[in-house]
Write a structure and sequence with these properties.
flat; 9 strands; 17% strand
Length: 254
């Protein structure tokens, strides 16, 4: 599971799955759905941060662990749905005030209620938290280097590893065409808790396979051997929660 701070939990596919008319409405009304998803992500981040801060207020000493930070929160299904419904609410709010169309107003109200349903489920389920969070990195830098890798276009992604062997969500995929050479992969700047990294390479963006055995040292680049592994571990979707943080019902807007 990705960390909440890695970016908006839901993409266009998930939003469209909840509302099949979304893209048509957005195109007709000139609404940037990706921007609404980012705005919804920011709003949820503020509300989650307030919730987490309230856990450390006087009277909350019953929590036996240190109060987690927003950067430790994992995107669980209720949190993802909250983001989906809040994004759709923002889209139809924009559409409604553009046209004062009652149909848009009804959809806005529908998704407002669904967002609060998801919030309620999140409060009851608790927040998924990781102890040693690893943020998703930016894509690695690829360059050609001497070697005999088969000529063609290669797709590469990387992921950070912490001291417990947990792995971050994989980076976006980057590509490089090589001709009778090999790949040199240089990861981006590591997060504070990273102790190593993994590299995933393939000849298709849908079939990336981990090429290294043990985690690669943070100070080392990766030179792809001439033989490309075609079976094994695939890019990580992120860390699983180490524990569930109980969440009091403190989100009280109407």
């Amino acid at each position: 599971m990705a960390l909440f701070v890695d970016g908006p939990p839901a993409g266009l596919d998930e939003l469209s799955a909840q509302d099949s008319q979304l893209l048509a409405v957005a195109n007709l009304e000139g609404i940037d759905v990706s921007q609404k998803a980012r705005l919804a992500h920011e709003e949820l981040g503020i509300e989650l941060d307030v919730l987490l801060r309230r856990l450390s207020y006087p009277g909350t000493s019953l929590w036996f662990m240190a109060t987690p930070r927003l950067g430790q929160v994992v995107v669980t299904p209720p949190l993802r749905l909250w983001h989906v419904y809040r994004t759709l609410e923002l889209v139809y709010t924009d559409a409604y005030y553009s046209q004062l169309n009652d149909r848009y107003g009804e959809k806005r109200g529908q998704f407002h209620q669904m967002a609060w349903w998801a919030t309620d489920k999140l409060i009851h389920a608790g927040l998924g938290v990781v102890a040693l969070p690893l943020r998703r990195g930016t894509p690695p830098t690829l360059t050609s280097t001497p070697g005999s890798l088969a000529s063609g276009t290669y797709y590469v992604s990387t992921g950070w590893v912490n001291r417990c062997g947990e792995e971050s969500a994989a980076t976006a995929t980057v590509t490089l065409a090589v001709t009778s050479t090999s790949l040199l992969v240089q990861p981006s700047r590591p997060p504070d808790l990273a102790t190593g990294w993994h590299v995933y390479v393939g000849t298709s963006p849908d079939r990336l396979i981990r090429q290294n055995g043990a985690p690669i040292d943070l100070n080392e680049a990766w030179i792809q051997p001439d033989v490309l592994l075609t079976s094994g571990a695939t890019p990580s979707r992120g860390q699983e929660p180490n524990y569930i943080q109980p969440a009091p019902r403190v989100l009280e807007r109407g």
